[in-house]
Amino acid sequence: MTKLYVGNLPFTATDESVHALFSQHGTVEKVSLISDRDTGRPRGFGFVEMSNADASRAMQALNGTEFEGRALRVNEAQERERSGGGGRGAGSRRY
After folding, report:
1. Which of 23, 40, 62, 69 is at 20 to 30 A from 84, Cα to Cα?
2. Residue 66 sits in a domain of what CATH number?
3. 93 in a domain, yes or no?
4. Please, where are the H alpha helices in the chain?
5. CA dist 19 to 3, 30, 48, Å?
6. What's residue 31's pLDDT?
7. Burial of 83 (0-12, 13-18, 19+ CB in 10 A)
8. Cα separation of 95 and 90, whole Å?
9. Is residue 33 in a domain?
10. What is the pLDDT of residues 35-60, one digit of tens each?
């Protein structure tokens, strides 16, 4: 299974519309569009999971193509290192 990063999505994109777009290139296992934690608004990117061969095909076919007026960025998702938290520690305060 390969997880694809899909960037520059229009804010009107839905899980269903992204699923339909990618399913033209193979079987889509999962679509996750990312929303802002505080406002709930779409952030303009998401992830699509497909089999390795289908993901490769979809990436080549869709990267740079226009979707609802925006040129998509599609590449293999990179695992993100989890940090210990988002706040500033005492060592970063300025007095």
Report:
1. 40
2. 3.30.70.330
3. no
4. 15-23, 52-62
5. 13, 8, 8
6. 98
7. exposed
8. 11
9. yes
10. 999 999 999 999 999 999 999 999 99
Contact 31, 22 (CB under 8 A): yes
Q: For residue 30, tell me if it sits in a domain.
A: yes
Report CA-CA distances (Å) from 68 to 8, 10, 23, 65. 11, 7, 17, 10
CB contact at 8 A, 47 and 31:
yes
CB 22 within 8 A of CB 28: yes
Contact 16, 74 (CB under 8 A): no
In a domain, 82, yes or no: no
58 closest CA partner among 15, 17, 27, 13:
27
Q: Does residue 61 register a pLDDT over 60? A: yes
Q: Counting every residue, how long is the chain?
A: 95
pTM of the full predicted structure?
Answer: 0.82
How buried is 59 (Cβ within 10 angstroms: 0-12 exposed, 13-18 middle, 19+ buried)? buried
